[in-house]
Design brief:
Blueprint: E1 19-23, E2 31-36, E3 44-49, E4 53-59, E5 62-67, E6 70-75, E7 88-93, E8 98-102, E9 108-110, E10 115-125, H1 128-136, H2 144-163, H3 170-179, H4 182-189, E11 194-203
Parallel strand pairs: 1-3
Antiparallel strand pairs: 2-7, 3-6, 4-5, 4-7, 8-10, 9-10, 10-11
Helix pairs in contact: 2-4
């Protein structure tokens, strides 16, 4: 028994009851599914999840359960202790990176004057329940590109919100950008179920300090003997 670990790669079922083996292909995207359980009514699913994978059990708009990495057996049916066939499963890759970048051709705009900011950040899903409520609840279908656009818009709003207070002063904005770190963005993204692993932003054009004007007549006393 000691070699069984925490259950990854194995599952149990009552004698004579065949379980459908179900694993997640890590190449198929950030969020996979939904898997409709109706066609598995009366059967069991041996669900095997890797370290960075979770499964969400969803009924309508409600999140009923979160299955963490390891092995799980789901008995689909209407009886006590069974998973309702009205539910579906959504699979999420927690550590799959979500990079968002803004260039000189498509910068962030902050403040009333729309000061251009360029840079990038990398985020991931850290709170599956909040992520589901923000991006997936109520959706019957989605695709990778659609979800990434939504996440990018959320990150854009979080970054610009952090920079608004300093946007009126180019030098202040540069200082604010220099001090920006992943933890600050984490605090803004946490309500959406996201966290930030890396952040790097800059003003699109370096701020210029205005040099004091030369004193009138300062050079007038220079003479050649």
């Amino acid at each position: 028994m000691a070699g069984l670990g925490h259950g990854r790669g194995w599952a149990t079922a009552n004698a004579g009851v065949e379980a459908y083996e179900w694993t997640v292909d890590p190449q198929q995207g950030l969020v996979q599914g939904p898997l409709d359980l109706e066609f598995l009514r009366g059967h069991r699913i041996a669900l095997n999840l890797a370290d960075d994978q979770i499964a969400l059990l969803v009924h309508g708009r409600d999140l009923k359960a979160i299955f963490l990495d390891g092995g799980h057996v789901l008995d689909v049916g209407r009886g006590d202790g069974q998973v309702s066939p009205d539910c579906h499963l959504v699979f999420v890759a927690l550590t799959r990176g979500l990079d968002a970048a803004w260039t000189g051709d498509d910068p962030l705009r902050v403040g009333d004057d729309g000061a251009p900011v360029i840079g990038s950040c990398s985020v991931s899903i850290s709170r599956p329940g909040r992520f589901f409520e923000t991006f997936l609840a109520g959706l019957a279908q989605w695709d990778e590109a659609f979800l990434r656009r939504l996440i990018r818009q959320t990150v854009r709003a979080a970054v610009t919100g952090l920079l608004e207070v300093a946007a009126a002063d180019p030098l202040g904005l540069q200082a604010r950008l220099t001090a920006l770190d992943p933890q600050q963005l984490d605090d803004e993204l946490a309500p959406f179920g996201l966290s930030c692993a890396r952040v790097a932003f800059y003003t699109a054009s370096p701020p210029v300090e205005v040099a004091p004007a030369a004193t009138a007549g300062h050079l007038a006393d220079l003479r050649h003997n």
